[in-house]
Design a protein that fits this description.
The protein is of the alpha/beta class and 272 residues long. Helix content is 37%, strand content 19%. Helix 1 packs parallel to helix 9 and helix 2 packs across helix 3. It starts with a strand and ends with a helix.
């Protein structure tokens, strides 16, 4: 069994943790690019990317965004936002997912020689996948618990996460997955709870997506309602929706077999 290769790739002067999974059956297949959630990293995906890639026989790429996992931290993550060229410091700005989708991800894929990937994004990573697919040609786009606009229930859950990080056990539970756990948490939490982020809305971008699209949402997700994937389908009619009962914010963990099977069938139909 081929094991993932973990290494680092420098993108616009920032060292990013990457993990490559070799194709085991079909070297001509598109590469699955896994885009993590707002508190995620390479390690927080656990073994699911490897399992899915081996199930399909396809190649995969997993990476940690700046400030997450073993990637470079963000300097002065709670300070004033500053940017010089592509180098940033301070708090994330409301367009941080646009920047990841349209500046960082294209350069990472270019350096690694990946063309027309299958984007597979979770939560913030799903939003980044949608934004990238709206502007760049991809083979397919799969999103789990994405955010296309801000809902009150999302902000309520993120406020509770702040309390759990400051007063509960969340910091200790996240610490093994991030070199700088405070950077990872605060860059996400501060921007989402900022007044400027309340108007975040990418629904107008979705009609530009031409690639096949699978959108998955858990019924019991405290961070988003079914309106998120309903709005995707309203703008991109090629969308296949999957609504999962007994499922929270992480469909690939809460309903692993169902999600793996749905993605496999979706991609096999495209290849056929």
């Amino acid at each position: 069994m081929l094991q993932p290769i973990t290494q680092t790739t420098t993108v616009h002067g920032v060292l990013l943790e990457t993990q490559s999974i070799a194709a085991s059956l079909d070297p001509s297949s598109p590469t699955l690019v896994f885009l993590h959630e707002g508190l995620g990293s390479v390690r927080m995906w656990r073994d699911w990317p490897l399992t899915l890639c081996q199930h399909l026989g396809w190649a995969g790429l997993v990476y940690s965004r700046q400030g997450y996992g073993q990637s470079d931290p963000v300097p002065d993550v709670r300070g004033p936002a500053m940017q010089r060229g592509h180098q940033r410091s301070g708090r994330l700005q409301p367009d941080y997912m646009h920047r990841e989708a349209l500046v960082v991800l294209p350069e990472l894929l270019r350096q690694l020689g990946i063309e027309k990937p299958v984007l597979l994004g979770h939560s913030d990573g799903g939003t980044i996948a949608l934004l990238h697919a709206a502007h760049v040609d991809v083979h397919a786009c799969i999103v789990m618990a994405p955010h296309v606009m801000v809902e009150d229930l999302s902000l309520q859950a993120i406020t509770l996460a702040r309390e759990a990080f400051e007063k509960g056990t969340l910091r200790d539970r996240l610490a093994p997955y991030h070199a700088d756990v405070d950077c990872a948490f605060w860059q996400w939490n501060d921007v989402w709870l900022s007044e400027a982020f309340r108007s975040f809305d990418i629904r107008q971008d979705l009609s530009r997506i031409k690639a096949p699209l699978l959108a998955i949402q858990g019924v019991d997700d405290p961070y988003g309602s079914m309106a998120q994937i309903d709005d995707i389908a309203a703008q991109a009619p090629q969308t296949q929706r999957l609504q999962l009962p007994a499922c929270g914010h992480s469909p690939h963990r809460d309903q692993t077999l169902v999600v793996t099977q749905a993605i496999t069938e979706f991609l096999h139909r495209l290849r056929a």
